[in-house]
Design brief:
The protein is mainly alpha-helical. It has 3 domains: 73 residues, Winged helix-like DNA-binding domain superfamily/Winged helix DNA-binding domain (Arc Repressor Mutant, subunit A), CATH 1.10.10.10; 58 residues, Arc Repressor Mutant, subunit A, CATH 1.10.10.10; 143 residues, GntR ligand-binding domain-like (Four Helix Bundle (Hemerythrin (Met), subunit A)). The protein contains 15 helices and 5 strands.
Length: 303
C-alpha cells in the first residue's frame, strides 16, 4: 500500500496528471494554477501538488511569480510533451479484481458507497488486495476516498441505455464542431495526433491496453473538436468522455481489435488537413455510428 501511495504522489506522476487536467479543462496559457484546484480534482494533498509544480517549473512548463503562485507558460504546453507521455503509456494499473468490482457496480450489485471490509467479505479476499484494487481504481478516477471512512464511486454511465445516449450525443456535437465557421487546425497538434494513431497501428493487439486506447481516443476527439474554438462543444464532449470512461474500459476487453478505429482517425486528419471539413464531418459521423453499433452489441452482452 505504501509503495502504491508513493507512486501515486511521485512528482513526475502528479505533474503528468496535472498536465492532462490542464488539457482536459482547456486551461489557457498565462492562467494562474492554484494548488487547491489540482488537489481537489486529483484527490491528493497540496504537498505533492507543490512538488509537481516545482518539477514543472524545472521543465519550463510553468513559472512561479513572487507572492502570486504558478502560471502556465506557452512554449512548453503547446508541445504537449507531458500529455503525450501520459497517453502513450501502455501500462494499465487495473487489476482483474478492480475490473470485477467495476462491472458489479455497473450491474447494480455494489452501492455507490462501500467500505473495504464489506468488499473483502463480498470478494472473499483480504483487505490489502481490496486496498490495492481501490488505489488503482482511484488513479483512473473511478472512485474517491471518503473522509475518514469508505469509498465512493464517481459519477458514471451505468446502463447500456445511457451509454447509447452518450454516443448519439457525440454524433450530434462532434461533426457540428468540424462545421464551425472559425474552425482552424493546429498542424503541430495534428502531427502529434497522427503519431499517436500510427503508434497504435504498429503495436500488437494484445499489447494495446484499455487505458492506452481510451486516452488516445479521447485525446484525438477532444483535440479535433477543440479546433472549432467553441467552448460549449468542447466542454460537452469532455463531460461525456468522463462519464463513459468506466463503461469503455469494460467494453474494450470484448473488442476484436481497436486498430480500425485508429485507421479511421487518420482519414479524418487527412480530410481536415486538406480543408475538406464537410467530408470530414460526414466521415466522423459514420465513424462514431460504426463505433456505437459495435460497442452497443458488446454492452448488451455485458449488461
Amino acid at each position: 500500500m505504501q509503495t502504491a501511495q508513493r507512486k501515486k504522489t511521485n512528482p513526475e506522476v502528479v505533474a503528468k496528471r496535472m498536465l492532462a487536467l490542464v488539457h482536459e479543462k482547456n486551461i489557457q496559457v498565462g492562467s494562474h494554477l492554484p494548488e487547491t484546484f489540482f488537489a481537489e480534482n486529483l484527490k491528493v494533498s497540496r504537498t505533492p501538488i507543490r512538488s509537481a509544480l516545482a518539477y514543472l517549473e524545472d521543465k519550463g512548463v510553468v513559472r512561479k511569480q513572487p507572492n502570486r503562485g504558478y502560471f502556465l507558460i506557452a512554449s512548453k504546453i503547446s508541445d504537449q510533451d507531458e500529455v503525450e507521455a501520459l497517453v502513450v503509456d501502455g501500462s494499465s494499473p487495473i487489476s482483474p479484481l478492480a475490473f470485477n468490482m467495476a462491472v458489479d457496480y455497473l450491474k447494480g450489485k455494489l452501492g455507490k458507497t462501500i467500505s473495504e471490509t464489506e468488499l473483502a467479505n463480498i470478494y472473499d479476499t483480504n483487505r490489502f488486495s481490496i486496498q490495492q484494487a481501490l488505489v488503482s481504481m482511484e488513479s483512473e478516477g473511478w472512485v474517491s476516498k471518503l473522509m475518514g471512512y469508505g469509498w465512493e464511486f464517481n459519477e458514471f454511465l451505468t446502463s447500456k441505455e445511457t451509454y447509447d445516449q452518450c454516443y448519439r450525443y457525440r454524433i450530434l456535437i462532434e461533426p457540428a464542431a468540424l462545421r464551425e465557421p472559425g474552425y482552424t487546425i493546429d498542424r503541430r497538434l495534428f502531427r502529434q495526433l497522427r503519431k499517436l494513431q500510427m503508434d497504435t497501428l504498429t503495436m500488437d493487439d494484445q499489447d494495446i491496453t484499455e487505458r492506452h486506447m481510451f486516452l488516445a481516443g479521447t485525446f484525438f476527439h477532444e483535440s479535433i473538436v477543440a479546433c472549432a474554438r467553441n467552448v460549449f462543444l468542447l466542454e460537452g464532449l469532455q463531460r461525456a468522455n468522463r462519464l463513459r470512461k468506466l463503461m469503455e474500459y469494460n467494453v474494450f476487453l470484448k473488442r476484436e481489435s481497436p486498430k480500425p478505429e485508429s485507421r479511421e482517425h487518420l482519414v479524418i486528419l487527412d480530410l481536415l488537413e486538406e480543408g475538406k471539413n464537410e467530408e470530414a464531418a460526414v466521415y466522423l459521423s459514420n465513424h462514431l455510428e460504426r463505433a456505437r453499433q459495435e460497442k452497443m452489441r458488446i454492452a448488451s452482452q455485458l449488461f
